[in-house]
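Re: the multi-chain job from yesterday

Posting the exact lines I submitted so nobody has to dig through the queue logs.
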Amino acid sequence: MALDVFAPWDDPDAKPLIQFKNVTKRFGDFTAIDDLTVDIFEKEFFALLGPSGCGKTTMMRMLAGFETPSDGTILLSGQDMAPVPPNQRAVNMMFQSYALFPHLSVWENIAFGLRRDKMPKDEMGARVDEMLRLTRLEKFARRKPHQISGGQRQRVALARSLAKAPKLLLLDEPLGALDKKLRQETQFELMDIQESTGTTFVIVTHDQEEAMTVASRVAVMDHGKIVQVATPDAIYEAPNSTYVADFIGDVNMITGTVRAEGAQLRMTWAEGQPEIVGETSKTFGKDQSVHFAIRPEKVSISAEKPVDAANAVQGQVLDIAYLGNISTYHVQLPGGQVIKAQTANNRRISRRSFTWEDSVWLSWTATAGVFLEQ
Amino acid sequence: MRRFSWFNATALTLGFAFLYVPMIILIVYSFNKSKLVTVWAGFSTKWYGELLSNQAMLDAAWVTLKVAVISSSIATILGTMAAYVMVRAGRFHGRTLFSGMIYAPLVMPEVITGLSLLLLFIGLNVDRGVGTIVLAHTTFAMCYVSVVVSSRLVSFDQSLEEAALDLGCSPFQAFRLVTLPIIAPAVISGWLLAFTLSLDDLVIASFTSGPAATTLPMKIWSSVRLGVSPEINALSTIMIALVTVGVITASLITKQQAVRQRREEQAADRVS
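And the result, structure tokens for all chains:
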């Protein structure tokens, strides 16, 4: 079972395709990338996630060759990339604006890179047709970019960047210009194409849902640094900082002090409230300040005090957000703290169990949340 | 539809009359049978025929055409290069000064441009003739070309060039295969503008030409000093026609390009 899982980052013998080694990039006084070290492996779908200005696009442009690092080295298959100009790198990029050549047809756009390689005519024709099939664009081969829809343009851009069979494909906010429904469909298409071509993809996005959906690993960035690199589930379930916990999804954050350390950690956090009990693999000192992060869907809500819950607090329903598939309850505790609890609406609500100002119990297990130092 | 108003009609008529009556008189008199310019004696095209047998005139026309084609071509290349660098160079110290210096000859009085070029040619001891007129015309026409081309380059999406590089183009290939075809309408209208400017320049050509090279405007000017002849009217009519065609073509190309660009941008906007 474990052998089937694709996880070269856990394999000490695996050779990374791309290595960032202490890379720093400065623009004048502004440091866009700050002493960054990360490995990206072959066939990975690697997502760079962060707010705008965090340096994710700069990282990508350095991979493409449009920027050079101020310090440090970037290796591709063990070879230093710095002296290689963009037109000689086995790296292709799909631009945020798609950057399709307006004076060329869809077919010619896809063939553009192959022509530069002086590929024989019949071989090139076959390759372009293959790309058109892959992206389901056969019918639009003769059209100009302004004669097709946004979703089709996005696919032309993808086909063009894949045509040269690069070792590494860079995608700069590839789905930013599409509406939500089309974006979701395209995410799955991207994953299929990534899998069938076996190309390494590096995607830049500010959309956490997109990163979680498509990526094998996600790097959360902030101010030119990678805060955490991990698989989507690890990022979500075991964030290493409050920044990551807060950036990905919804979270309740409670700050307190360690009362009893060890695997079963106890944290005091407010007068008159029971201590929060949780398991942790990290070591904390006694009386250390600590943050407890718990996802709303891991908090259950009930009218009666649950008997065997590790943690239970009482509060009053402040707000209810009904989202169709789920409902989020904002529950105010006596100390003023608001905790969000989420329940799946797996039955039609003919009668809602709780309503505004109801007194309710919130409970969670000892493994539901994580303790974070910062 | 706005309602017809006598005020508007009068204003329009007066304005256009002011602009075009002199030229219309010139055109009409070029078809005058009489040799006396101010006396109408019936319709005739004989002066056009006579023009064709006037060797001096034909020589001047040939010089003018040669100068216009060569100088506008060189000006287009240099002007496009200047525009490309100014738009692409990004921010650097003295950028405003440099771009100002490219455009300064546009507003420089022609007499000064002509005089300074004359002094330069004398100083360098260059024989004045067709070559020096070409150089002189290139210097001022280049500014016009670079204005036209840089206004197109400003709205040019730079990621197109990056995409070309990314797909394996050398920087020069990227320019030739991607940038140039896209900005071609601006380059062509720049060339046409330079061509028409060169055709009707009198002042700078007078300063920089030598005894062997006389352009058509110079020829007209010198003949008129001896008296206006119907032949000159005919020649002027031809020149008006040529310049009009040139300017209209240039503006049509620019307009078509603007329309296409807007359409493409709208199409792109629908996506985002």
